[in-house]
Design goal:
By secondary structure, the protein is α+β, with helices and mostly antiparallel strands. The protein contains 6 helices and 12 strands. Strand 10 and strand 11 form a beta hairpin. Helix 3 packs antiparallel against helix 5. The model has no long low-confidence stretch (mean pLDDT about 95). One of its GO terms (cellular component) is cytosol. Keywords: Protein biosynthesis, Transferase. It holds the Pfam family Formyl_trans_N.
Amino acid sequence: HRQALPKRSEQWLIFAPDLIVVAAYGRILPTPVLNLPNLGCLNLHPSLLPAYRGPSPVVGALLAGDDTTGVTLMLMDEGMDTGPIIAQRTRVVAPDDDADSLTAALFSDGSDLLLQNLGDWMTGAIIPQPQDDARATYTAKIERAAGAVDWELPAELLARRRRAYAPWPGLYTRWEDKELKLLDVAAAATSDIAPGLVVSADGTEISIGTGAGILTVNKLQLEGRRPATAGEFLRGYPQFVGAELSRDGAGQ
């Protein structure tokens, strides 16, 4: 749950605003604040509500592999992203989008959406539409441990996680007692490589077996070192080929 506003939020009552607009605020507005402006409290939420309510909507869309997502302008109520919808805009998810780039694009769309609808909202020309709670999906707060690679998972899911968890917590494994960040990866559908086994066909590319398919690693960063391409990394650490990586960091 989001934290309530601190006591100094009482200052909001002094300002007596006609309208409050929040975006990526991350906290619940107390009922006195919600009831303060005569035009209500509006929120820009980076999903097409009622999908992906909660704190991590962009991550949720990327993890699901959605082709499209969007942003919602809504009237806030006391629930978690449950208020009626004023307007929405859809956006295609690009193949190279990660959480960082997609969040920026959605809030850019959201600012346009707000400006396009603010005048009509202030004159009462827009009637907000209630959400269909039966279609609601939810997201949770992301913990750092979510970025740890389980090599028994499919390569496609791991590639989605790399995009969803950028820039934080990232996608990472361990090798020789050090954290190894996987900065740029791609999934291949078929593989007879054991999960967690590192192979390289020519010494310039890195492939790692997963529970289903191969994860190709194009760029990576060993703890305490600079980011490197696969070829650069193998020139410095040729012994990486043949390593058996595991979720608990015992990869050697």
